[in-house]
């Protein structure tokens, strides 16, 4: 059976990973001290445990409260650069070859940064991280997804950043935050702006609300991908003979090949299921949905891409073929030019998995 150590050697693709959800505890402590922000503890190991335990409540609202501390550690250009730099290195060490780092620029203006300052600082950090990773023999590509907080006043300001910086490391747009009471359609103007400019976007939907959120994200807003989307199972029933039947929305999402950015450990923390074995990811895989595996927030879930896959191996007997399938799904779904996606699939992912099969045989 594949374990974390073996899976770490395999190439992976991280589509749904929040920049402010994966900080190193030591970095949080240092930055918050400089910014005058009090933390629950200033011991790195204790702080790591605190984040996991605070997030492990079964409530999305409580889960989101942990970000007060990580965002407080990301309020200057230097701090943003460092966090982005470390994001890249931590992913590369885990065997990730492509990642998209999403975050809300508006949350990093407490000390006077302009929105453009934030995007450019993160960009410098990602660029420096990629250069260092390559020098260390760990080639990785990382881009930004800029996010609007869905509970805020809807504007097109952040969507416009995605358009303006689309050739400078920003690959897309997202809305995130509490779903209930804040439907995707509130940001219709932002999505319209992106469509008019042929820009890509994903939408958090179906994480803590349900089918109406997914329907709006897909049919009203035109999402290219669904952030989580796990509640699509509410539109899947089992008949008397044990056969799964897809409703119209589930059928549309599957047939249109709309990628699901599933985050197993995070979904457990927000109440989707009680255990990985009860998570619907394997069912969605069997039914032919475009399933991708992600961490969401590595700090809050105390996880990594390799650990997420290891949990699926343990719960569902996934093997190296299943991991390759999910990885290629993610690479196909990345907000990256087609030729570059193809090059990574055929030049890195498939050869690496083929070589690993020989070593693991």
Global mean pLDDT: 96
Strand order of the largest sheet: 1-2-3-4
Count of discrete alpha- or pi-helical segments spanning 4 or more residues? 16
* H/E series: HEHHHHHEHEHEHEHEEEHEHHEHHH
Shape: globular
Which percent band covers the strand fraction?
5-15%
Largest sheet: 4 strands, parallel
- Quote the distance from N terminus to C terminus: 11 Å
- The residue ranges in which pLDDT falls below 50 over 5 or more consecutive positions are none
Q: Report the structural category.
A: alpha/beta
Question: What is the helical fraction, as a range of percent?
Answer: 40-55%
Number of strands: 10
Oligomeric form: single chain
Supply Rg: 19 Å
Summarize the structure.
This protein is an alpha/beta fold and 361 residues long. It has helices at residues 4-8, 25-35, 44-55, 60-65, 67-72, 77-93, 115-135, 157-164, 188-196, 211-220, 248-255, 264-269, 281-286, 305-316, 320-333, 338-360, and strands at residues 12-18, 96-103, 141-149, 170-176, 202-205, 225-228, 236-238, 244-246, 260-262, 291-293.
Helix/strand layout:
Blueprint: H1 4-8, E1 12-18, H2 25-35, H3 44-55, H4 60-65, H5 67-72, H6 77-93, E2 96-103, H7 115-135, E3 141-149, H8 157-164, E4 170-176, H9 188-196, E5 202-205, H10 211-220, E6 225-228, E7 236-238, E8 244-246, H11 248-255, E9 260-262, H12 264-269, H13 281-286, E10 291-293, H14 305-316, H15 320-333, H16 338-360
Parallel strand pairs: 1-2, 2-3, 3-4, 5-6, 6-9, 9-10
Antiparallel strand pairs: 7-8
Helix pairs in contact: 6-7, 8-9, 15-16
């Amino acid at each position: 059976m594949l374990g974390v150590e073996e899976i770490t050697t395999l190439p992976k693709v991280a589509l749904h990973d929040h920049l402010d959800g994966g900080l190193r505890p030591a970095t949080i402590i240092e930055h918050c001290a400089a910014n005058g922000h009090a933390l629950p503890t200033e011991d790195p190991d204790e702080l790591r445990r605190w984040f996991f335990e605070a997030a492990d409540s079964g409530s999305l609202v409580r889960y989101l409260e942990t970000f007060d501390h990580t965002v407080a550690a990301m309020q200057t250009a230097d701090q943003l650069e460092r966090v982005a730099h470390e994001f890249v290195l931590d992913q590369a060490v885990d065997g990730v070859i492509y990642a998209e780092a999403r975050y809300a620029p508006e949350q990093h203006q407490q000390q006077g940064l302009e929105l453009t300052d934030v995007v450019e600082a993160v960009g410098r950090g990602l660029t420096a991280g990629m250069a260092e990773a390559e020098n260390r023999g760990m080639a990785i590509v990382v881009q930004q997804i800029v996010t609007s907080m869905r509970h805020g006043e809807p504007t097109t300001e952040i969507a416009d950043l995605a358009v303006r910086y689309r050739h400078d490391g920003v690959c897309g747009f997202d809305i995130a935050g509490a779903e209930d009471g804040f439907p995707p359609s509130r940001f219709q103007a932002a999505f319209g702006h992106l469509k008019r400019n042929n820009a890509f976007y994903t939408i958090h939907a179906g994480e803590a609300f349900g089918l109406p959120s997914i329907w709006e994200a897909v049919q009203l807003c035109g999402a290219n991908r669904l952030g989580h989307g796990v509640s699509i199972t509410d539109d899947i029933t089992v008949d008397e003979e044990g056969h799964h039947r897809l409703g119209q929305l589930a059928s549309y999402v599957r047939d249109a090949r709309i990628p699901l950015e599933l985050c197993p450990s995070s979904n457990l923390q927000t109440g989707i299921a009680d255990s990985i074995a009860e998570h619907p990811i394997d069912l969605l895989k069997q039914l032919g949905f475009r399933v991708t595996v992600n961490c969401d927030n590595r700090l809050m879930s105390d996880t990594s891409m390799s650990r997420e896959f290891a949990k699926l191996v343990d719960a569902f007997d996934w093997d190296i073929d299943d991991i390759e399938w999910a990885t290629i799904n993610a690479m196909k779904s990345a907000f990256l030019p087609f030729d570059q996606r193809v090059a990574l699939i055929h030049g890195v992912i498939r050869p690496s998995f083929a070589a690993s099969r020989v070593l693991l045989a």
